[in-house]
Amino acid sequence: MKPLRTIYRLADSEADYAACRQLSGRYEALDWPVIIAERDDRTFLGFASANLTGDIVQLGHLLTTAGPHAPTVCLRLVEAWENVLAAAGVQEYFFGVEHDNPRLLTLVEQLAMRPYSELEHVTWYKRSPQRIGGTEHGRS
């Protein structure tokens, strides 16, 4: 059976967290919320997680497996992550884009996002979470 849907949900088991750590190649704790993307056959596609520093919320990880699905899965992961932040009452969060990732920098600029801060290797952006639709989608 070919998977038809991609599901975006909160990580809720050690197996979910293990899949995230394996994809990132890092084994430190992941801050809540952690949203995972998986096909309806449970194939793991990626995740988004926070990095909490005091009262500051940052998008800590946004990673997907390689493939034509990656750009859409990234977008949907951010939508689902923002839905959770908005429901939790978070007013703003920050995310950084490393300068050695020109494709992502261009995409962020095309979305009319303005830099909040420039550091030597990273451009930081500030964003308010937006509640966007549901978190279950057809093919991606």
Write structural notes for this entry.
It is built from 3 helices and 8 strands. With 140 residues, the chain is an alpha+beta fold. The protein has a 5-stranded antiparallel sheet, sandwiched between helices. The model is unreliable at 135-140 (pLDDT under 50).
Which ranges are low-confidence, i.e. pLDDT below 50, for 5 or more consecutive residues? 135-140
Number of helices: 3
How far from one another are the termini? Answer: 17 Å
Overall geometric form: globular
Q: Examine the coordinates and then state which fold CATH places here, giving the name of the CATH topology.
A: Aminopeptidase
Largest sheet report: 5 strands, antiparallel
What's the architecture in CATH terms?
3-Layer(aba) Sandwich
Mean pLDDT over the residues: 85
Class from secondary-structure proportions: alpha+beta
Query: Which strand-content bin applies to the residues?
Result: 35-45%
- SSE order, one letter for each helix or strand: EHEEEHEHEEE
The number of E-state strands comes to 8
Number of domains: 1
Helix content: 25-40%
**How would you write the strand order of the largest sheet?**
4-3-2-1-8
**CATH H-level superfamily title:** Gcn5-related N-acetyltransferase (GNAT)
Q: What is the CATH class name?
A: Alpha Beta
* Radius of gyration based on Cα positions: 15 Å
